[in-house]
Give the backbone structure.
Amino acid sequence: MSPYLSTLRSMIALSMFAAILGALLLVPLSAAAAGIGPGYQEPGKPLNHLGGYLTAGGRVAYCIDAGLPSAVGRETSDSGVVGSVNSLAPVEVFRLNTVLSRYGDTSDANTAAAVAMTVWSIAGDVAYRAQGGDGHVLLRAPADQRMAIQALADRFRAEAASVTTAEQTAVLSISIDAGDDYGGIIALDASPGVSGTVELTNAVFADSGRNSRASVAAGARLVVVAVPPSGSTSYRVLASSSDLSAPAAPVASVHLYSTSGAQTLVASAGSASVVLAASASDFRDRLVPSLTTAAQSSAKVGGTVIDTASLTDVPSSGLQLRWSGYLQPVGTSIPLCTDSRLAFRSSAPVTAAADGVFASELFSVTDRSVGTVFWVATVSRNGAVVAEGSCGDSTETTVITAPAIPVQLTPVHLTPVHLPMVSG
Amino acid sequence: MTRTRAAAALVVLLAAAAALLLLHLLADRQAPVTRAHTRSIEPHPELPAARIAALPEARYDAVIAGLLPARGTAGGDSAYRVREDTALYAADLVTPVARLAARNFLGEPTVVVPVESSGDWVRILTPARQRLPSKGADTSGAPAPAQTSAWLHAHSLSSPTRVAARIIVSVSAQTLRIDGTGTGTGTGTGTGTGTGTGTGAGTGTGTGVGESDGAGVHTWQVGVGAPGTPTPTGVTGYLEARYRDATQGQAEHPVQLTSLHSAAADEPFGGNDGGLIGIHFEASSSGAISHGCIRVPVEALTAVDALPLGTLITIEE
């Protein structure tokens, strides 16, 4: 084959490809004449139609260009689903599709006539009224049907007007109980019908004790209990959901049928389901009770010994305090706080309902506890330890001996230099 | 060779055309949409301690122009302490304007009352002034505020306490009322709109000039500011501290210092402590007779003294 012939064949192939591509992309998917659909025509003027038009694909479409020539009998192209037409605002497109989705696909003449009237008023009320409005187009319908059509159109318009947004929303929020950092409420504020699974981090649902709940619906208010991560000094509760599904609803789009020089037709673009994700976090760190302790430094046999604990960030639901004293073996410097070394233990927990300093009971000292005692204070809530001292703290050491060592506490007085003078 | 290249080109082009056709057809389909509503946690601004220390302290006698006027009724159901000396910020949440000491002039933990939240920030009422009344109205015509506020990072808060009650003073009726001294529950939401409810369940103890409706509401006749030294109205402050002070004739009944200041004069009672509005006992406790303070009978003082620091006080016309 000569190079010339080869090049020619390649060019022919490319030309064929371009023709195919152009046919696929540059011209509408289908081009056919729209026909008269359900509705009414003015006697003697069949193109003065009040109602829907039948597309080549069998859809019922409606005119949005009052005053332009009819698309009937002309080549009408299917432009597919579009989110914008005739410079209408998104909410107007959404209202159009809402009416079209609910009532557009009909074979009933009255319904189609009312949908047509509604579509005209949404798509261009000024132009529609300039053409004569409802009073003008209703003349195309039989006199005994006009009131019924008008009532339907009024209803459709009211439904459309009630549509203010196409946006489906879901917002999770977490509150912290004002008096108890372990408490709070998870709230799901969402569009009606939205529901999904909510997962918690550092918390559980109060009624189930689980950190996950399915089918949480819009408007839900669920009590949660914080579960601090082990060893943390502060933390936040998190809530999240990635499967909040909203029921299928009309979208802010319409199916467009274009006709050069004539009326544009629109049909329903259908509905779509929406999956939402939402998450929330505490607005501040949740507080973990802070514990500092101080034991009586020395005691004598026959006397008593006491340990104290200072607690801050105590939840109003209260905490329980217990103290244990461990007698250390002679000759070792390694702190040992095991049950085998237990010399003292609280007979009952002390409840702390607010920040403050709390004292253990007075433990009686016998000659069996002579030596060095290390104290460990344990703070628990609902049976779970939330704070605990460590074995061997210097402030948690009591040296117990036979001779008495008097202990005298000197009160500290804070005397302000100046007290503010109020206005009297 | 040439024929092979031409055939390969045609195959590639046809494949591309098929892909474009497929995309074109799929364009009409409505795919599920996923939208996320996520709140982010703002980082805590770590202001160096030296910078915090250099800021003016928002004390009862300070005047700090960067503070925010706080007029009208404010809400809140919790009081807190602050972990350490903390910077207070302007409304832009960036500009530090003052320092709040962790301990007040009595050496006690400073109590703060959030009245608004936004993300990780809370707006608290402060003890200091923003402007002196003698400076006249500002450019918008507003007089010096009787109460100020500023923003604080929530990270600084500790030791939450529920504050169920609220003090309401009516200047025109010359009454002091305590609402909701019973138990209550409250929540502060993470969306920046703090909400709370308090349900009164107390029993009345008011005697003499006081009244009680048995539902956690107590009312007493009180003395308020004289016409020349009026008690500020239309504002909400909080109980800041309480102390006995023989030099003020209050050795027996503790003065209830509020965060409010006179809006009529810099120092209506003289001195230089900031024109402070207090609630204090006075044998003569009715009429428009004070320099701005709320003069109360012993029963009312006892009731106010029993409220936690941080309790809000709203002064109405």
Q: What stands out?
A: The two ends of chain A are 115 Å apart (CA to CA). The first helix of chain A runs from residue 3 to 26. The first strand of chain A starts at residue 31 and ends at 33. Residues 97 and 268 of chain A are 5 Å apart (CA to CA).
